[in-house]
Amino acid sequence: MLELRPNCECCDVDLPPSSLDARICTFECTFCAACVATFPGGNCPNCGGDFTPRPIRPESWLKKHPASTKRIVAAGCSERQENGAGGR
């Protein structure tokens, strides 16, 4: 099941389960749309994959399958944005 991480891994902005700004890659790396727009080629700085809007889990299902509360912030994200480096 999709983890629904609570924040952008780059700028740490909150991304609640209903956020239309959340983007995920195939490894569920989670970023906000604003940060994704700055990544060279629009690809994930962790794995190099492409992004898709994160699905919205219906409120009724959040009670049974809550979103994650574990915040992940990638060290050096802003430097990777500038240099175009990726690869997990």
Could you give a quick summary of the protein structure above?
With 88 residues, the protein is of the alpha+beta class. The protein has one domain. It has three helices and three strands, in the order ββαβαα.
Q: How many structural domains are formed by the residues? A: 1
First-to-last CA distance: 22 Å
- Strand fraction equals 5-15%
Counted by DSSP, the helix tally is 3
Please tell me what the overall shape is: globular
Q: How are the strands ordered across the major sheet?
A: 2-1-3
* Helicity range: 10-25%
Tell me the major beta sheet.
3 strands, antiparallel
Rg: 13 Å
Query: What is the average per-residue confidence, as pLDDT, rounded to a whole number?
Result: 89
Number of strands: 3
Structural class: alpha+beta
Low-pLDDT stretches: none
Order of helical and strand elements? EEHEHH
Describe it.
This protein has 88 residues and is an alpha+beta fold. It has one domain (22-83). Helix content is 19%, strand content 9%. The chain is built from 3 helices and 3 strands. The chain has a 3-stranded antiparallel β-sheet. Strand 1 and strand 2 form a beta hairpin. It is globular. The two termini are 22 Å apart.
Key attributes of the depicted protein:
3 strands, alpha+beta, globular, 88 residues
Helices and strands in order:
Elements: E1 22-24, E2 30-32, H1 33-36, E3 52-53, H2 59-64, H3 77-83
Antiparallel strand pairs: 1-2, 1-3
